[in-house]
Amino acid sequence: MHRPAFRLATLLFVAIAPLSGCAFTNIPITMPTSGLENTVPGGAGRHVVVSIPFRDDREIRDRCGMQKNGYNMDTADAVCQSNPNAWIAQLLADELRASGFTVLREGDEARRSSLQVEGSLMKLFIEPIIGAWSGSLEADLAVVLRLSTETGLRAERSFAVKGWKGGMMVSTAQPYHTALHRGTQALLEEMVRAIIELADAYPELGSLDGDHPMHIALELAHR
Prior knowledge:
Layout (H helix, E strand, L loop, with lengths): L2 H18 L6 E3 L17 E4 L4 E2 L8 E4 L5 E7 L3 H15 L3 E3 L10 E16 L4 E14 L5 E12 L7 H29 L22
Parallel strand pairs: 1-5, 2-6, 2-7, 3-7
Antiparallel strand pairs: 4-5, 7-8, 8-9
């Protein structure tokens, strides 16, 4: 082998080696439990009831992501260590409470105007993106929220975000957790802001003077 070609082959091996060493080992994913780094205010004490867990509507349910080797081959799983459907619902409930809402559990006595929050987890998947010289981790999260009240409101909205961790990727849990944390923060903020926006548009929601028929149907899905 000519010296320049040998040098190039050596560089490629060095680039690929960290991506391949532990790529056949499953990655355990600990779900992030911290709320937003910057709380979004606006709950104003209004009552919401969050259904926990959300419904599991993921196409891939047996794992939360994948490992790849340096040749971009699927070699192992990323495995969630807790129920992702209960996790995302509880995280939303906690963040709504931090935003100033009065968050009730299912079965608690609620006002007729209390905002009922139900959801479906549509996607949670963390995947390496292998480049020519380096790699990154990409976490895809998607949720559909369905909001309603006994007084007649019906609303639905879809949320889809990505969390990204760039730089040279190695087959360890930390980059997976970083990508998932960033995606979770983006998803949580979008959902809380949307619920506040809806509550502000209809101030009677969750309030004492809101217990009258509304007969409202809203479609808030992203276009």
